[in-house]
Amino acid sequence: AIGEALITHPHIRKVSLTGSTEVGRRAMELAARDFKRVSLELGGKSPNIVFADADWQAAADASPMSVFANTGQDCCARSRMFIERGIYDKFVDRFVAATKKLVVGDPTKTETQLGPLVSANQRAAVEEFIADARKHGSKFACGGARPHPKGYYLEPTVLLDVGKTDRCWREEIFGPVVCLTPFDDEAAMLREVNASPFGLSGSIWTNDLRRALRVARRVESGVLSINSHSSVHVEAPFGGFKQSGI
Asked: Which CA distances in Å does 216 have to 15, 161, 187, 227?
């Protein structure tokens, strides 16, 4: 109610919204009535692409926080990981080991790395995705449970063998859940990366500069990082393609 009143008020000339794709669509519809300028920072389902020639150990050690930071409540979360098959098994082992080391707990304590989800409703929504993954036979490499009896906590969850039509693969979860899949062919992998309705952020791991630039140009995403999971910087514009906003 407050948002719609602000957007439609005649004294408001510019609308900037950070939120879900559904709310962004509604904001754009309302702003269109008076041709108000709109900036929308919406959902994401960002890829994390790791090639076999990369420093895959560094990628495996760093990548958990590319999706689990802020307990996965991050529009830029790299919640789909594409790992070249030659390194897939050993990458998964190292990535899962790094994930299991993450400390979930009281956010006021210095040792904590993952706090609770924002509300009971948000945890319930994430647990619906987890239940759907179990129903469809995804492999749980780790996580999927509540680590503490009190608070809206969830373990960081790593899913393997997720179907490309399953909700966990297609939809933004906005919680501590990541899907890993192997790939053999660069072109086929890129088609799957770009099959998402979102296009906000992502990472590419490779030591081949030509490949890094070639793949970065083909990924439909507002921002990308190479050999890092930090792609948002104050020195550069930030925004997305498709349903990730304007």
From this structure: 30, 26, 13, 12
